[in-house]
Amino acid sequence: MSDRKIRGYTVAQTPNPPLVAAFIGGVVSLISSDGSLVHGVARAVFIVGLAIWAYGELTEGVNGFRRALGAAGLAIVLVSLVSSFS
């Protein structure tokens, strides 16, 4: 990964593949018509990509902030899934 560091602290890095997939799935689901197959698949890609990324950050995050981001991502996934099934 290409990290950007200032005085030894990482301030930016290239996103990993699950996060890129989640972003693309989220954008496609926003621009596709609700209820279509494309929308459903894009939404699934968003949820799965975000869940994989969030779990990785929560369990292997390099600091507390990254682990908190992972916990927040998993919370978003859980809220989204609960609202989908209710």
Describe this structure in words.
By secondary structure, the protein is mainly α. The chain has one domain (about 5-85). It is built from three helices and two strands. The chain is elongated.
Number of helices: 3
Approximate shape? elongated
Structural class: mainly alpha
Radius of gyration equals 15 Å
**Strand residue percentage:** 5-15%
Strand neighbour order, sheet with most strands: 1-2
End-to-end separation: 39 Å
- Please, what is the average pLDDT? 90
Low-confidence stretches: none
Number of domains: 1
Order of helices and strands: EEHHH
Topology, please?
Elements: E1 3-6, E2 9-13, H1 17-31, H2 37-60, H3 64-85
Helix pairs in contact: 1-2, 2-3
